[in-house]
Design a protein that fits this description.
Layout (H helix, E strand, L loop, with lengths): L16 H4 L5 H8 L5 E5 L5 H14 L8 E5 L2 H13 L6 E4 H16 L6 E2 L4 H10 L6 H16 L7 H8 L7 H18 L1 E2 L1 H14 L1 H10 L2 E4 L7 H11 L5 E5 L14 H4 L1 H4 L4 E5 L1 E2 L4 H12 L4 H4 L5 E2 L8 E7 H17 L7 E5 L5 H10 L4 E4 L8 H16 L12 H9 L14 H22 L5 H15 L7 E5 L8 E6 L15 H15 L2 E12 L39 H7 L4 E2 L6 E2 L2 H6 L11 H18 L9 H10 L4 H5 L6 H15 L9 H6 L1
Parallel strand pairs: 1-7, 1-8, 2-3, 2-6, 4-5, 6-7, 9-10, 11-16, 12-14, 12-15, 13-14, 15-16
Antiparallel strand pairs: 17-18
């Protein structure tokens, strides 16, 4: 055996059933030993729930109490199911079925269909969007690409909540759900979609559950067969079970009660997909004799992070809040959560990027840092800030901003309008660049007011609104700028952010961060209207927003930063307020019935205002005009002022940068951005002091790349590297 066999990635299989229990805390051990009857595990964030339930299964198998093939463990993602299977194999309990609800149901449906119905199982429709589009067309209802995605999601929601087409409008009204279209129209499309599936003998993803339920309900012989096969059931993330999944679980169980469920009502954040914590909260009512174990020892986060998480839930209301778990950190003390107020969104992004760069310099791996936000459209300003700071990043759960379909379409429209100039009738009544952009983007779905509800339509609007804001900021920085100027700016930004996938800082929405964790987490944009989101109206929706923030807080192991900005853009009206969820928790805020503020010394940082007071205006070295654009400030001249750049030197610097980026396996912009290289080629520095004076060349990059850059400027090939660079290689 190699030494890797004994590593944490490849642990040795326990040599006995008792050895499986080694290392479990008292509550986890209680879970592992509770092998009979109903068991409910209420497991807080970071408390080792997966460890507890996999050791429970493994102990039963290794002790000879449970046959591995008689266990069905279900969860909600293929990743989670794969992790569970891997852990069970490491514990010597191979052969256990660990699957998603859909995977388990499809396997049974394929096996029993010939006996229950006859013939082959209908073809599974992998992508229902095309059929929904055809259904809408047959109903005379026109849907654009984004509306099509939203209506498809509504049909999925209706099916998992067991809502038939005729009942859809009434159910939507009763549940106060924001429908993406007129509910009557969606009902029509839904009914036609179901008809088309029947005509073509195909089934969709939700039908897999519905048909399995139908067969088990109608054919008692088949239900008995399944129940003989599976004697023990385990359900992870039970707070996310939909009514349809619960119905299937009940049919699997029959009149037996060997069921172990694991969940946390305080992490219910997917109600818009049909998930409900009611089944978890009602478990003890349905099973009065159930063994209930609470896991509250938090092994993930420091006491400071846990204290904030507990304080956040301490203000919660509603039924889920009544069952909240008070976490107890098992880790050593760490730094206090940092609360930072910024003047505007770009300042918030730049400040976050600086802090991230400092963490990386202090030894925190970039892959162990995350920036979490409420909606995907917030990513663009952080992508830009991290790129400018030379920090590699990766997006999770979303396309890069400039790769989003609506942004590409908007770029094409703006480029066409710029070429047409005064010949484009769209621009006849538009005065100024922002007005021209609004006029063009109005043809792509932008309106002055955001659409109600969430989903693809809202995401599309947010992306287009970000372009409108960019135009406003651009015009403020460059009065008299044209559409052509803006298109050139967009092209440069897109080029700067286009990079291969790297192991970098994670940018993710709060929803897509569920189930993940990092050493350092930055929760950004925590203002009213974003957290809670503006379309969260009811008390129940507000509380789900609070739970979403709680999930974000509990992703952090050690470093946690919470920030907000008072204005959207530099110089804008400072009318924003920090999220109400931070009242009584952030220093200096009034408590709204919380059980205590998240203690700690210090207060809210306001770094931007202090920094700006100490810095004079940047002036163009050619014409003397005040510079406000970041790219111009790097060059220390207006973009349209004459350049004295050494073109040959610029090309040599670009070649060196490309080679250096390959050596360190990072995108080229992480070495130096194009604008910084242009500034170097214009200034042709001859000393470290002159090079350090160029914006974009900080102390870290000076130490790492300075010797090579100065060598190239002196006519060399850049072969000289600093000691720091050699050490990093």
């Amino acid at each position: 055996m190699t030494s890797a066999t004994h590593s944490t990635l490849f642990p040795q299989v326990p040599d006995s059933a008792d050895a499986v229990l080694d290392g479990l805390d008292p509550e986890q051990r209680e879970v592992a030993l509770a092998l009979q009857g109903p068991v409910c595990v209420l497991a807080g964030a970071g408390t080792g729930k997966t460890r507890a339930i996999t050791h429970r299964i493994a102990y039963g198998v290794r002790a000879g109490i449970i046959q591995p093939t008689s266990v069905l463990a279900v969860t909600f993602t293929n990743r989670a199911a794969g992790e569970m299977r891997g852990r069970l194999r490491q514990l010597g309990a191979g052969g256990v079925q660990a699957r998603t609800f859909h995977s388990a149901a499809l396997r049974q449906l394929q096996y029993f269909w010939p006996k229950a119905v006859g013939g082959d199982l209908p073809r599974l429709l992998e992508r229902k969007v095309q059929l929904v589009a055809e259904a809408a067309a047959r109903c005379g209802i026109r849907l654009d690409r984004n509306e099509l995605r939203d209506v498809t999601s509504e049909i999925e929601w209706a099916k998992v909540t067991q809502t038939v087409p005729a009942d859809y409008p009434a159910v939507v009204a009763k549940s106060q759900r924001d429908a993406p279209r007129d509910p009557a129209e969606i009902s029509q499309v839904y009914a036609m979609y179901e008809q088309l599936k029947r005509d073509r003998t195909v089934i969709d993803f939700e039908d897999v559950l519905l048909l399995t339920v139908g067969i088990l309900q109608d054919r008692h012989d088949i239900a008995d067969h399944v129940r003989r096969q599976y004697q023990y059931f385990v359900v992870d993330e039970y707070q996310d079970v939909s009514p349809l999944q619960q119905r299937l679980l009940d049919l699997w169980l029959g009149d037996r009660d060997n069921l172990c469920v694991v969940g946390d009502a305080s992490q219910t954040i997917y109600s818009f997909t049909g998930a409900t914590p009611d089944h978890l909260l009602n478990f003890r009512t349905r099973h009065p004799l159930a063994t209930v174990v609470k896991l509250v020892r938090d092994y993930r986060s420091t006491p400071q992070v846990v204290h904030l998480a507990n304080g956040l839930l301490g203000q919660a209301r509603g039924r889920a809040a009544e069952h909240r778990l008070e976490l107890v950190s098992q880790r050593e003390r760490g730094p206090e959560p940092a609360y930072t107020e910024y003047a505007d969104e770009p300042a918030e992004a730049e400040g976050t990027a600086r802090r991230i760069r400092d963490l990386i310099a202090a030894g925190v791996p970039a892959g162990e840092i995350a920036v979490l936000y409420r909606v995907n459209s917030q990513s663009e300003v952080y992508e830009q800030a991290l790129a400018d700071a030379g920090v590699p990043y990766q997006l999770r759960g979303a396309e890069r901003f400039f790769e989003r379909a609506e942004v590409r379409e908007a770029g094409v429209a703006l480029r066409g309008a710029a070429r047409a100039g005064g010949n484009d009738s769209l621009l006849d009544d538009a005065q100024g660049l922002p007005a021209e952009v609004r006029a063009v983007l109005s043809t792509k779905g932008w309106r002055s007011e955001p659409p109600a509800g969430s989903g693809a339509v809202r995401d599309r609007w947010e992306s287009l609104a970000a372009l409108v804001r960019l135009a406003e900021d651009f015009e403020q920085a460059r009065p008299g700028a044209t559409l052509s100027d803006l298109v050139a700016e967009l092209d440069e930004r897109a080029a700067a952010q286009h990079a291969p996938t790297v192991q970098g800082v994670t940018l993710a929405s709060l929803h897509s961060a569920k189930g993940l964790e990092w050493d350092a987490v930055f929760l950004v944009g925590l203002t009213e209207g974003m957290m809670p989101i503006t379309y969260a109206k009811t008390d129940e929706q507000i509380e789900e927003e609070r739970r979403l923030l709680y999930v974000g807080v509990t992703r952090a192991r050690f470093h946690l930063s919470l920030s907000w900005s008072l204005a959207r853009s530099p110089g804008g009206r400072a009318g924003r307020r920090p999220s109400r969820f931070l009242n009584g928790l952030r220093p200096g805020s009034a408590s709204l019935g919380s059980r205590g503020a998240a203690g700690g010394s210090g207060g809210i940082e306001r770094p931007v205002a202090a920094r700006r007071k100490q810095r004079g205006p940047a002036l163009c070295r050619v014409c003397g005009r005040t510079l406000t654009d970041a790219g111009e400030m790097k060059l220390m001249r207006c973009d349209d002022c004459p350049s004295d750049m050494d073109e040959a030197l610029y090309e040599r610097l670009r070649d060196w940068r490309a080679a250096r980026a390959r050596e360190i396996s990072q995108p080229a912009y992480c070495v130096f951005t194009d604008k910084t290289l242009m500034a170097i080629a214009e200034a042709v520095p001859g000393s470290e002091g002159e090079l350090a004076g160029i914006p974009g060349v900080g102390a870290r990059k000076l130490g790492r790349f300075g010797a090579a850059v100065l060598d190239i400027c002196a006519g060399g090939d850049g072969a000289e590297e600093s000691a720091e660079a050699d050490e990093e290689m």
